[in-house]
Amino acid sequence: MDVYEIPPLDGDLDNFKQLHQTLLSLRGVWAAQEANKEKITNELIEKFKAEVDLMGERMAAAREVAEAQEVLSIESDPISMSLGLKEVLDTLLIDEERSKKIMEDQTKLRIEVTSFDELNQLILFVRARYQLWDAIVRWDEQKATWDETPYTELSPEMMEAEIEEFGEEMEQLEGSLPPNDVLLMLRQRVERVLQYWDHEEILGEGG
What we know:
Blueprint: H1 12-66, H2 78-109, H3 117-148, H4 156-176, H5 181-196, H6 199-203
């Protein structure tokens, strides 16, 4: 069998060298992109860490406020306690949104996702204490409204409904708070109204 050799065309070697150089350039670009990607990822990891550290500082400050002795003391002013705990809770809820964004970004980058269980537990802890004092403030305002309303204009059905709502709220608070004098104080205030404003008397059936 005859063997035929195909002579190279003019410029083939130059074209090969150009192609080789192009491949080397692309490889360099790819390597640079990978290095840049790693650099950006590392910068983001440091950014996440800094944000988490700041959140940790805010959590420590929030815990100090929520665990203070006056939070569950009947000597404390209800309005001041309600406003103060609301401010703390709002700060934590903002951090909760930040935590969701951090976890979302970490998932996209396929890196270790930070756990924010401690933050979530602290939110529940602070929220329960805020709701306790907020309930007292709302009850005192409701009681003042009833006291200022002429007896003949009071609505027994509406009062019953509102008292029932407070009763349900107190049951929820009892499930999320340790036994304390503040919750007992709220219950006593509600029961005092039930004692003085007997349902049958309000309806006019007692006289």
